[in-house]
Each structure stands twice: as C-alpha cells, then as structure tokens.
C-alpha cells in the first residue's frame, strides 16, 4: 500500500507496535544519537522524540531500522517481492517519450501510472512559508563527538540538469554552517556532482531544493542506484503503485514532493570557492575526513503546520542505513541478473557497509568464469566501489556467511584464486593510499576444474545419507530435540 505521507507511515508503525514515543525532553546534540545507537544495536523500534531542546518540531529516527519496517515502508511483505517486477520497470525507460505506445501495451499500461504529477498551486509541504529562513529552528543533530557540527542526514537533494531539464534526486549530507548555509556533500562520482559541473561551465547560481520527511518510498528512491534515464520520483511511484504529486518550489523552478514535511530551497553559487566540510562520523564506523565541497545557500524554508523532522544516524553496523542497503541488494538483483544471467544470488554483509564486500553465487560454465564475473561487476555502475568480491558455486547461499567462510577458508589457493584489481573507490574509503583510487580484491572460492589446471581429485562435501536424515526427522520429537 502507498502511504499518504510520513505521518501516515508513523501512524501505521504505531498501530503495529513498531514505534516508541519519547515524551521527556532530549538534546539534539549527541543525546539522541546515543539513545538511538543503543536501540539500533538491539534491533529496536522506531523512535519519535516529541520534545527536543530548542525546537518546536518532534524528531523521527530509526523508522526504517529493521527488515520488517523497510519492507513495510515500500508496501511489500518482503524485499524480494518488490524485485519481481523491477525488470519491467527498467524496460519502461525505453518508452519514456512514447506515452501512447505505453498505454497500448498491456504489461506497460499499469506502469504508466508511475509518472509523477505536477500539481498547480501549493502543497501540504508549503502550509508555512518562511522567506527569512533559519536552520537553527530545526532540531538538526550533532551525531558524534568528533563531528564538525550539526548535519542534516536524511535529505532528498533535488537539482535540474541544465542541458536536459531532467530533475535528479540524491541523498547527500548537509553540514550546517550557520542559519542560512550548509555544505553540499557531492561526491566526485555522484550525479549531483555531475550536474554541478555542468553549471560551472556557464557560471551563476544553481537552483537546489531539499525535501525532508517524505513518504518512505520516496525517501528510499533517493538512494537507489538507478540508471541515469530513470527519474527517482518515477521509481518512487512504481514502489508506491501510485504517482508522486509534485509542486513547484516557492523561490526556484525545482518541483518537490507535495506531501513532504519540510522543503529547504536555495542555490549553490558555482563561482564561489569551496568550503571545508566534515569530519563526520560515517556509515563505515569511522570519521570521514574534512574536505572541500560547495556551499548551499538557503533562501526559503516551507513546512507543514505540524511537521515532523526526520533524521538518521550512521556508524558501526547495524544501523538504520543498513536496511536501506539491503533493500537495494534485493530489489536490484533482477537487474544484475539481466546483465549477467549466470548470477544466481548475491549478498552484501552488513559489516561491509554497502560497498566493501559482496558475495556472489554463479552457475559456473567455463574455466575462469568466476574471474570474468569479478571484472564485470567492477565495471557495472556503483559496483565499481566494491572492495572485495567473493564468488561461490550456485548451490551455496551467499547470505549463509558461515558456509561461504568455510568455502573461502578451504577452497582457495592464494596465488591461483586471488585477484587484485586497481580502480575507483568510494570517497569514504580511508584505507587506500589515494582518495577515490585503490585496489580491490576478488576471491574465487568455486570448485576448480581440470581445465583450470587443477589435476587432483576434488573431494566431495561430507553429507549424511538421505535415508538417515529422513529417519532422524521422524524420530525428532522422540529424541526430545524439538
């Protein structure tokens, strides 16, 4: 089902006993983080802090902090359920300029409803309009003691390509410098940075609007690794099975989700010198270092009359962002299999924090097949950041990390089965000698064939006979082991 807005999702969480209201006053500087970190490590509920020191707005955090809440947020019983139709959705991109043809094709006619609707007039996100904005009125968190300041951690940063006019939505943290300016954490490899570079060719001010507190499907869509031709708001409509309603920002031409809790409008002056942003306690569990980034100037803040401020914290897993990463893992597996049919399944361990490790099972068909998959994945979109790729045979379930470890520890010859590849790395990677560039490791833990130079007899796994297993299953209760 599609949630009308964030507060509709909050009501649903509360109904299912998945949300805890905190009625005592708390501090947005460090205290909310410490409380939430403890709750996250115990796989606890979403938290709604109703009284935050120095602000009129309540704070929602950990709303997506479990597999169940993440699935619920996307209107599904499980994340794999969403994946079933993702191929049809991506194929739809071929028809973006051919609406009549879409409507004439039975499979695509339902998907045509995902296109966002630009509504005239104002939206609920603009019930209150403040043309003299002050970010200090918002309960923005200082998350960790070593952070450079307060950070907006769950923003949907919306920009428009100056050449195509297509809007882009991404999630980039915003360090608050003062009441009217923040940093704009556009990584080198991100779409937002690419659009920024296009504006630099002509100079001037680049319009930006930031949405806070959308229907969770919209929020998730800002993090999804979509092909460039796919609008994040269209993907959100697909997830919601209902179009996203957009309204024009008050001070620029960016269209924003009408049901958002807050909209922060402004611009980035591309002629302005970059400014030091960070450090920040990041999802790697380490502080990302200070670096130079563009400055976002706030010209207007709009919000609902009774708005809720959404936020998240990141750090050593498990944290809320882990479940957003797992959603991406499951939802986009079919897209990966469309490109590489030999892939059976994959798994991103939470400890790998998105890019640092992926385990892949393949249907091995020829010598060196595992190494081919490693190279292919390193050349596929954001998979280029993956520091370690482990390849196992098709009968191994990648999420069974114990079995994967058993295969890795016992099945590899270091010289033969380890691959070191140099290439791009995530901007948050701190282990490489150079920023953005380093070495990735591939581990081929598949069974080796004679055609791969393995001339010895490969031993079989130890297995109990099916007869004995069936006998024990029948006697299980008698043994008192149930």
Automatic annotation (TrEMBL):
Residues covered by the 3-octaprenyl-4-hydroxybenzoate carboxy-lyase-like C-terminal domain: 322-445
Swiss-Prot/TrEMBL catalytic activity: 4-hydroxybenzoate + H(+) = phenol + CO2
Positions of the 3-octaprenyl-4-hydroxybenzoate carboxy-lyase-like Rift-related domain: 121-317
GO biological process, one term: response to toxic substance
Top EC group: lyase
Gene Ontology MF terms: 4-hydroxy-3-polyprenylbenzoate decarboxylase activity; 4-hydroxybenzoate decarboxylase activity
Pfam families: UbiD (PF01977), UbiD_C (PF20696), UbiD_N (PF20695)
Keywords on record: Aromatic hydrocarbons catabolism, Detoxification
KW Phosphoprotein (keyword) present: no
Ranges where the 3-octaprenyl-4-hydroxybenzoate carboxy-lyase-like N-terminal domain occurs: 10-84
Listed EC numbers: 4.1.1.61
InterPro entries (alphabetical): HBDC (IPR022390), UbiD (IPR002830), UbiD-like_C (IPR049381), UbiD-like_N (IPR049383), UbiD_Rift_dom (IPR048304)
Coiled-coil features, chain-numbered ranges: none
Gene Ontology terms: cellular component: cytosol
Keyword Glycoprotein included in the entry's annotation: no
Family classification: Belongs to the UbiD family.
Protein name per Swiss-Prot or TrEMBL: Phenolic acid decarboxylase
Organism: Amphibacillus marinus
